[in-house]
Structure formats: C-alpha cells, structure tokens
Amino acid sequence: MRRPLEGVRVLTLEHFGAGPYATLLMAELGAEVIKIESLEMGGDASRPTGPYLLGDHDSQYFQTFSRHKKSVALELKTPQGRADFERLVAGAEVVVGNLRGDQPVKLGITFEALKGVNPAIVCGHLSAYGRGNSREAWPGYDYPMQAECGLMSLTGEPDGPPARMGVSIIDFMTGSTFAFAVVSALLSARATGVGCDVDVSLFDVALHQLSYPAVWAMNAGHRTERLPGGAHPSLAPVQRVKTLDGYGQLMCMTQKFWLDLCDLAGRPDLAADPRFVDLKARRDNLAALTAEIDALFASRTSADWAALLGGRVPFGPVNDLFGALDNPFVAEVAMRDVVEHPEMAGGLHMLAAPIRIDGERMPGQRSPKLGEDTEDLLGGG
C-alpha cells in the first residue's frame, strides 16, 4: 500500500519515549526514519530497557517505539562520524532529536549548523523545557511535567493524593505534536526551498493540556477541583460509576444522553425530578445525582450496562490491561498485529498503527538491530 510519507528521509538522534514516538508515527506512515546511534554508547538508551529483553541491544520496550526504522552506527563527535552524518543530511529532508535543549547547538544539528549542507533541511528539537531559556540544559521526563503543570492536581479523588496518568501520556502527546509540527515545517520547506528549526517541549505541551480549566482560571479566577468519581467540572452525569461487578465510565454530555439513559434504564422518575431536569440543575445537585446514579448502576454488571447503553449513551466498562487487549472490538478493528522477530519464534505481538489510509492499516515491521543499516546507507565511503 502507498504510505503518505514515502520518500521522506528523516535522521533522528533519539531515546526513550517522546522523540521515538514522534518518529514512530512518521515511520508508520512511510517515512524512511534512520536512527543515528553510537556503538560506543550502546545505541538508543531504551534498547536494554527491561524486563523483557530480546538479545543484545534489544527489548520489547525498544521494539514498541522503533518499528519500521533503520539504524546507522556512527560517532557524531568524531571527524569521520561528522562527515558520514553530513553525507546523510545532504540526502535527507528532516533531522530530529529529543535531547536536552542545550545539545542541538553543541552537536551541530540546528538549521544554522546544517543549512550549508542542505538549505532545505528541517531541524526538529524535542526537549524537556525548550531552548533559549533558563531551563534549557535541564533534563526532564513525563511524570514531573504532569506534576508541575497541574495535571496531577486534577487527577484522582478529592480526598486522596494527586495522581498521574497510568502511562506516559505527556511523552505521547508531545511526540504527536512534534510529528505534526515537523511535517508542517517540511511542507513549507518543500514549497520554499528553505528549512528551519522546529521546537516542541514536554513542558509546553503538558501546560497546553490544561485547556479550558486554564482559560477559566485566567479569565474568571475559577479553580477547577477534583470531584468524586472523577466527575467532569461542568457536565453531569459525566463520571465513574460503580457497577455490580466493577466500574464503568458514563458520559451524558448532552440533555439527550441523559434522557436516553433514564429511558433505557426504566427510570422516567429521574428525568422528571426537578433536581435533575436540566444540566444546571444536575450540576447544582451533583451529590444527590451521584447517589441516584450509584444506586442505579449497582443493579447491573458492567457488561450488561454496555449492552443496554451501547450506541445510545456513551459508556465504557473499566477494563484492566488484559480486558482492554482482549476486547472483541480490538480484533474487529485490527488494532493488534504480529511482526517477525528473530528472538520470538511465534512473532512479536504488538499494537497496530492507529492510522488507516484508504481504510487499511499499515502492516508492522520490527525495529532495527543496532547499526543494521550502516553498510547499506554509508557503504565503505
């Protein structure tokens, strides 16, 4: 199948999550993503991340983020390595990395440093705190960003401690934003023949996720607080519910969904109750509404509620990891695939790309061995 980024060569100096996630999306869409790795340093720092290793310099963690990519081993700080790198830059359209903000200048991977080699090169820099500020040289990761940018304060129950998202969601949001920004800059470079620097930081993206609560705070002085059941700050009932055998997430975002819920559940009295008659009334009487909703949902299992409400009222059972992966709908939409791997006799089971082109998902391909493509891309010269 034709992938929309076929023909785009991307060089990347990357490790762990955010940067590799960005180039994973590009590679899944057809870009030739070439990891520039140091044999001396053992390559991408995520290669040996356990607990599930796959021989030397490889792991299931590494495979998660580097499907479809290639690997060239060179020492960028040596004269020969620099010369080899610039040979690759001359034939590339993009150079990206997720390093500390002070590293792109030191390593000579900015537009200013590379425009003499390729005037149309797009140089993307994903860092913890951005460049050109007092934290430029600071290291940083997802979890502290969730903390400092206020996201943890909004997560969890009101009588419990702040909580983080169960996965590195800021890494993935930043990677997605970075991929979009880099490809946008590439469109401009192709049109004008002039490249540029693109900067995206974990901090900026994390803060941006505050979204409308930030706007409310800045303009109305409103402090959004955690509510029982993870309830929405302004819409109701939009909250976690306890079912007969577990939990579910209910989202009556509109009056129609509320009325449909009452109808399907056989509770017209709730729809007629003056305390719950419209959105404002439900918001003002959230504690009473929660008591009624909890009692209602405790009468059926999560699966029963999903079957009853499916297609009419937004509701999802709270699955554990295995329940999420074994969901029949996951198989229906082909969100799992298997890639060949020399260390896995039956293949490596993975999540498929979350993008379809002309209705089809791109087939997966394993991540590269360290330096696997050096000879093909650099030859003997």
**Structure annotation, total helices:** 17
The whole-number mean of residue pLDDT values reads 97
- What is the H/E order? EHEHEHEHHEHHEHHEEHHHHHEHHEEEEH
Query: How many distinct beta strands?
Result: 13
Low-confidence stretches: none
Q: Give the CA-CA distance, first to last residue.
A: 34 Å
Q: Summarize the amount of helix as a percent range.
A: 25-40%
Cα-atom radius of gyration: 25 Å
Q: What proportion strand?
A: 15-25%
Overall form: elongated
Order of strands across the biggest sheet? 3-2-1-4-5-6
Largest sheet: 6 strands, parallel
Query: Strand pairing plus helix content: what structural class?
Result: alpha/beta
Secondary structure blueprint with pairings:
Blueprint: E1 9-13, H1 18-28, E2 32-37, H2 60-65, E3 70-73, H3 79-90, E4 94-98, H4 103-107, H5 111-114, E5 122-127, H6 142-148, H7 169-192, E6 196-201, H8 202-208, H9 211-220, E7 238-242, E8 247-251, H10 255-264, H11 268-272, H12 279-284, H13 286-297, H14 302-309, E9 315-317, H15 321-326, H16 328-332, E10 336-341, E11 344-351, E12 356-357, E13 360-361, H17 374-378
Parallel strand pairs: 1-2, 1-4, 2-3, 4-5, 5-6
Antiparallel strand pairs: 7-8, 8-9, 10-11, 12-13
Helix pairs in contact: 1-7
